[in-house]
Design brief:
Blueprint lengths: L20 H9 L8 H18 L1
């Protein structure tokens, strides 16, 4: 008698899974501008003002 077991086939791929080329471009668009934030500019100006006041 034959058993009712299922045969599993394994398929080996030649290499890693192919990547979606559009994902890299989308990820790069998420990056912000390459300039200082408003908060850091304010903080720097505030520190410069304090420095000037203490020099007087």
């Amino acid at each position: 008698m034959r058993s009712a077991r299922k045969i599993k086939l394994k398929i080996k791929l030649a290499g890693p899974k192919p990547r979606n080329p559009l994902v890299a471009a989308a990820a790069q668009r998420k990056a912000g501008s390459h300039r200082k934030s408003e908060a850091s500019i304010r903080k720097k100006e505030k520190m410069a003002l304090k420095k000037q006041l203490f020099q007087l």
